[in-house]
Design brief:
By secondary structure, this protein is mostly helical. The chain is built from five helices and no strands.
Length: 100
C-alpha cells in the first residue's frame, strides 16, 4: 500500500522536482529562497526539490543542499553580535530590540 502511494507521489512530482540528472551541484548555485515568491517563502515551497530528493533518493549529500542566503551567512550576522553588552540582564533580547 505504501509502495503504491510512494510511486503515485513520485509520478506526480517527477516533472521538475525529481530530475534524473544527479550531477547538478546545487550547493554552488544561488539559494532558491532568494528568488522565491512571497507564497513560496510563507509555505517553504522553495524547499520542495530538496525534500523530495531526500525522501525518494535517500540521504542527501552536500551537492543536494543549497547554499545559505547571503543575509544569513556568518560574516553578515556576526556584526550584530559584536556590540552586545553581556553585563546587563537579558543582553540578547535587548540587542535584538535595539537593532531591529
Amino acid at each position: 500500500m505504501f509502495k503504491n502511494l510512494k510511486q503515485k507521489i513520485k509520478n506526480r512530482f517527477s516533472y521538475s522536482l525529481l530530475s534524473e540528472d544527479d550531477n547538478i551541484d546545487y550547493f554552488n548555485l544561488p539559494c532558491p529562497e532568494d528568488s522565491a515568491s512571497l507564497w513560496k517563502r510563507l509555505t517553504f515551497g522553495w524547499t520542495e526539490r530538496m525534500l523530495m530528493t531526500g525522501y525518494f533518493n535517500g540521504p542527501l549529500d552536500m551537492k543536494d543542499v543549497s547554499d545559505l542566503p547571503e543575509k544569513t551567512k556568518v560574516n553578515i550576522t556576526a556584526t550584530y553580535l559584536d556590540n552586545i553588552d553581556y553585563t546587563s540582564k537579558y543582553p540578547l533580547i535587548k540587542q535584538i530590540y535595539k537593532e531591529f
